[in-house]
């Protein structure tokens, strides 16, 4: 499945019609740059903004660490993990 189809499938499974302006800008920046800092208000869709392009960049054949996400609190990684598991289940 190509990246565009994968994104459409994920968005559809999450009940999202389209990405917002920040998410589109973040996606382009993450694809182009090695290090990205994404600052946006709570509830603006940052999780989706950074996870969609990361999914495009990951190579299933590489077994080493390909991405490191640094988060500001203890609760936040658990929320991201729940999103990731939900998307993984929906992408199969």
From TrEMBL:
InterPro entries: DEAD/DEAH_box_helicase_dom (IPR011545), Helicase_ATP-bd (IPR014001), P-loop_NTPase (IPR027417). PANTHER family: RNA HELICASE. Residues 27-92 form the Helicase ATP-binding domain. One of its GO terms (molecular function) is hydrolase activity. This is Superfamily II DNA and RNA helicase. It comes from the Bacteria. Keywords: ATP-binding, Helicase, Hydrolase, Nucleotide-binding. The keyword Flavoprotein does not apply.
């Amino acid at each position: 499945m190509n990246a565009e189809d994968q994104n459409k499938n994920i968005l559809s499974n999450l009940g999202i019609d389209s990405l917002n302006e920040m998410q589109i800008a973040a996606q382009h920046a993450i694809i182009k740059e090695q290090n990205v800092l994404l600052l946006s208000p709570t509830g603006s869709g940052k999780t989706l903004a950074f996870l969609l392009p990361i999914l495009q960049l990951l190579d299933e054949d590489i077994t080493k660490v390909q991405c490191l996400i640094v988060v500001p609190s203890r609760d936040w990684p658990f929320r991201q993990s729940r999103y990731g598991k939900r998307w993984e289940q929906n992408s199969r």
